[in-house]
Design brief:
Chain A has 318 residues and is α/β, with parallel strands linked by helices. Chain A folds into 2 domains: 149 residues, ATPase, nucleotide binding domain (Nucleotidyltransferase, domain 5), CATH 3.30.420; 153 residues, ATPase, nucleotide binding domain (Nucleotidyltransferase, domain 5). The first copy, chain A, contains 9 helices and 15 strands. In chain A, strands 1, 2, 3, 4, 5, 9 and 15 form a 7-stranded mixed β-sheet that branches. The relative contact order of chain A is 0.17. The interface between A and B is large, with 46 and 46 residues. Chains A, B: This is Sugar kinase. Chains A, B: Pfam families: ROK. Chains A, B: Keywords: Kinase, Transferase.
């Protein structure tokens, strides 16, 4: 049985797994990146984690991994982690993370999640869509003609910092009125606390909004309006076949999707909106996309098309 | 000498020419589309115009045209003018416009202009840019990986209807705060008239703004601010290597470009803006792009790369 090692490296934690060519997934326990010890320590931590996953693969399948795929934050090419403000590294080659002799490929974290949603997730039936995970921050994977698109220099997808209220609230990034400052999960929690004095999670804000709390409803409604404004502009410029919302806020379900669809349609006068659907792969999208990168590194560009969502969701966890 | 027939069909008028494989351009006098007589009349007028240009080509070069390229408004595929609200036609095949037996290709008007700017105009050195002609309306050609991109169904590029002030002025399209309602040439003229009572052209508004007229400066400044807001969002989502501004308003030159560059940079806190440059091909971009479509129809995808801007600008006019 051939397999790849797949890793989704976030700012503070990382998630890894083994994924066979047939889509059998073994998810390992996540672990911290240790970024408080500096970028070199993160590289060492990633390398050690990849090594342990590869050891598990050798013992389970009796062969070397066919490839390694890594989803990493910041600016990234297939062979180099160019820069991450979050981690602090610069120009780290893929080989620094991986066992000698095993082919490796890197990808941008959000776009790698978008790749997985594209190949066998919520976007599997379309070529052109936006994958928008909404968590502590907001960034998107712009999937065009079947491929995640990062722009001229890999800085694309920053829809979280598109201004929806250009004379509105100041964002932590220094700009005015960014989508993220109204609609990220952390913004929803922060803005509720500012108005109510209560410290709660975004999930609780949604629950209170659904239960009729007027302050929670106002804050959550403003988040949805900000999303509708940003998505309307996206739709007008890029005419996607689909919008896929993921991340923690998507767990709000109908409380998010129903008003969002309605407000998006209300912001579009001369065209229909595309469907707006929840992501299929949840928080594992990045790791599963990294598995596709690992198979690409192994020379297999077709992996994933026949993977089943049920197998993935039922993947064993060691 | 081989040549193609190229036509840029707008709502009310059309421009045609003969373009040789070497980039020698003969521009013919434009003529009305006659849309007031209905869509069938427009098809007949286009067909007649194409026929006359082909006759000129036969008499000048002694051979049949190698192909015909047509830039048309609305929704369009390479072989069919699917729909235009402006003209009213539906599902007109390319053959309806062209002499029997001559291969033809259609393209979207703005994207065809963007194709020309991409192949031998202001975008010739980059693969990813926005071509934004600003005239009576605003629509863009989103050029990605060297090709104009129209989205899942060909409705893309409508950046003129992205909302820059979501609680702002109502646009003629029915939406609120569209870029076009602040920054098109007709919006600049209209908004100046509303505030001053004087009826002038956008060009005159710019001249008055430069001369120190406070109302003109305010209206033109608001147009530039609206452009900066829309372009900042575009840059964040798509990370273009370049922004190319064309159309009548680009003739304002430094009065437009200098404050626009400054305000765009001011709207971007954590990344540099791309260069913002004037278009190279002027109002002929659509016709020249149609010539490239004509060569593509003839099986020659490489035409244009060696065309010189000087030759194009000096093209003889019959």
């Amino acid at each position: 049985m051939t397999y790849v090692v797949a890793l989704d490296v976030g700012g503070t934690s990382m998630k890894g797994g083994l994924v066979t060519r047939g889509g059998e997934v073994t998810v390992l326990a996540g672990r911290p990146t240790g970024r408080e010890h500096g970028p070199d320590a993160v590289v060492q931590a990633v390398r050690a984690y990849v090594g342990e996953i590869a050891d598990l693969g050798r013992s389970r399948y009796g062969v070397e991994p066919a490839g390694v795929g890594l989803a990493v934050p910041g600016i990234v090419t297939a062979s180099t982690a160019v820069y991450s403000a979050n981690i602090g590294w610069r120009d780290v080659p893929a080989e620094a993370f991986t066992p000698p002799g095993v082919p490796a490929r890197l990808g941008h974290d959000v776009r790698t999640g978008g790749l997985a949603e594209s190949v066998f997730g919520a976007g599997r039936d379309v070529a052109d869509f936006l994958f928008l995970p909404i968590g502590t921050g907001i960034a998107g994977a712009v999937v065009l003609r079947g491929e995640p698109y990062g722009g001229a220099r890999g800085w694309g997808g920053e829809i979280g910092h598109a201004s929806v209220w250009p004379a509105g609230e100041k964002c932590a990034c220094g700009q005015i009125g960014c989508l993220e400052t109204y609609a990220s999960a952390s913004a929803v929690a922060r803005r509720f606390t500012e108005r109510s004095g209560s410290t709660v999670t975004a999930k609780e804000v949604v629950e209170r909004a659904v239960a009729g709390d007027p302050v929670a409803a106002e804050v959550f409604g403003e988040a949805i309006e900000a999303l509708a404004i940003a998505l309307a502009s996206y739709v007008l410029v890029l005419d996607p076949a689909l919008i896929v919302i993921g991340g923690g806020l998507a767990e709000a379900g109908a409380a998010l999707f129903e008003p969002l669809r309605e407000r998006l349609a209300g912001r579009l006068a001369f065209r229909e909106p595309p469907p707006v659907r929840p992501a299929a792969l949840g928080p594992r999208a990045g790791m599963l996309g990294a598995a596709l990168l690992g198979w690409q590194a192994a020379g297999d560009d077709d992996a994933g098309a026949d993977w089943s969502l049920d197998v993935l969701r039922g993947g064993s966890v060691s």
